[in-house]
Design goal:
The complex is a heterodimer of chains A (148) and B (140). Chain A is mainly α. In chain A, 64% of the residues lie in helices and 0% in strands. The longest helix of chain A has 29 residues, at 22-50. Chain A is elongated, with a radius of gyration of 22 Å. Chain B has 5 helices and no strands. Chain B has helices at residues 12-15, 29-56, 62-71, 75-103, 111-138. Chain B is elongated and about 80 Å long. Classes of the chains: A mainly alpha (148), B mainly alpha (140). The interface between A and B is large, with 40 and 38 residues. Bound molecules: protoporphyrin IX containing FE (HEM) (2 copies). One protoporphyrin IX containing FE (HEM) sits between chains A (27, 30-31, 34-35, 37-38, 41, 83, 86-87, 90-91, 93-94) and B (37-38, 41-42, 44-45, 48, 88, 91-92, 95-96, 98-99). One protoporphyrin IX containing FE (HEM) sits between chains A (41, 44-45, 48-49, 55, 58, 63, 66, 72, 76, 79-80, 83, 123, 126-127) and B (44, 48, 51-52, 55-56, 72, 81, 84, 88).
Chain lengths: 148, 140
């Protein structure tokens, strides 16, 4: 019985050649977001781990002080969106590489998509609905400007 | 014919090793940079999922946030942060290397050199970061 063996890189289904080339834009996005993320993440780590007492200085009051400034609000929101979409798209590539069954792939990619979408929503809401001086909380846990 | 000018494909015996010793890609800088890039990318992704949840505790109460962020300040987590920063710094520098390979006309020619530049920059960055971070973690 003879059996034909396909060439090693034969695609499962023929490549689409109409409409938007999403894989190409994903490829470009990984590179553009990556370069911006170097600045955003290094800046984040510098402010939170190097300056002053670093990680030991982080508490509710520290976050209150940072997010009192729209600059750091937008910094964090940009980092949130760019990093989650970059990471989610990278995870999708890895699932495409290793997960074989049709079901497994859909479940894994669905889980990645859901976590990215939910966390983008949550993180954005947290930054913009944050109250640095919640009422009824012990004053020593709050940023010093709450006393005024 | 006195001068031989034609280009010929070199015989297989001179380009292929008889011993299993990898190829141009396998087991070399190109492969290891990819392996590390992939592992660090996945690790950072899972950290980020947890990190956004812990940051979200600022909307619950100052006590809740402080309790959780307090665990970031323990010695064991301090060492974990060294690993995390090590992963990010590698992924970031190697990511720039990937971009240069793709867009810089000489990128592919220098991919191997750039891998060692990434390693060198990683060592320098970590030499700057680790002592300072460990002092912050262990002196409080
Ligand atoms: C151990 C290292 C880290 C520490 C101690 C830390 C600490 C913090 C703190 C205190 C905040 C609150 C707001 C602010 O200070 O800007 C925050 C927010 C944030 N961090 Fe980090 N961070 C670390 C690493 C990272 C890394 C590696 C990433 C990216 C991959 C990241 C992404 C974010 C994002 C996206 C937010 C905003 C969250 C939101 O929108 O709710 N952080 N981080
Ligand atoms: C610090 C700045 C960063 C740079 C410069 C960067 C750069 C890159 C580049 C160029 C790629 C290759 C894409 C491709 O081959 O098509 C990539 C892949 C990836 N990145 Fe990043 N990235 C950064 C941050 C992050 C962060 C914060 C995460 C996680 C949330 C992440 C997770 C991943 C993953 C999972 C992959 C897929 C790896 C693979 O396919 O082997 N990266 N990154």
């Amino acid at each position: 019985m003879s059996q034909t063996i396909e060439a090693p890189r034969t695609p499962v289904r023929p490549a689409r050649n109409k409409g938007i080339n999403w894989e190409k834009w994903g490829w470009i996005y990984m590179r553009v977001s990556g370069v911006i993320l170097v600045v955003l993440i290094f800046g984040h780590l510098f402010m939170n781990l190097i300056v002053g007492d670093g990680v030991s200085a982080i508490d509710f009051a520290f976050v209150g002080g940072k997010w009192a400034d729209p600059f750091w609000q937008w910094w964090d929101v940009a980092m949130l969106w760019l990093a989650l979409i970059h990471g989610g798209n990278g995870m999708r590539t890895i699932v495409n590489d290793y997960a074989r069954g049709k079901m497994t792939r859909s479940i894994l990619k669905g889980a990645i998509f859901a976590s990215v979408a939910i966390l983008i929503l949550l993180g954005t809401l947290v930054v913009f609905t944050f109250d640095p001086c919640p009422t009824g909380q012990p004053a020593d846990l709050l940023p010093s400007f709450c006393a005024a | 014919m006195s001068v031989q000018t034609e280009k010929r494909t070199p015989p297989l015996s001179t380009t292929t090793s008889k011993r299993p010793a990898g190829t141009l890609y396998r087991g070399r800088e190109g492969m290891w940079s990819w392996v590390l890039h992939r592992i660090t990318g996945v690790a950072i992704f899972f950290f980020l999922l947890v990190h956004i949840l812990d940051t979200a505790l600022v909307r619950v109460s100052p006590e809740a946030y402080n309790a959780v962020i307090g665990t970031y300040q323990t010695p064991i987590m301090g060492l974990g942060e060294v690993a995390l920063v090590g992963a990010i710094v590698f992924h970031a520098f190697n990511g720039v290397r990937i971009v240069l390979i793709d867009f810089w006309s000489k990128g592919t020619r220098y991919q191997k050199v750039m891998f060692y530049v990434v390693i060198a920059l990683w060592v320098i960055t970590m030499l700057g970061f680790v002592p300072r971070h460990l002092i912050n973690v262990f002196s409080h």
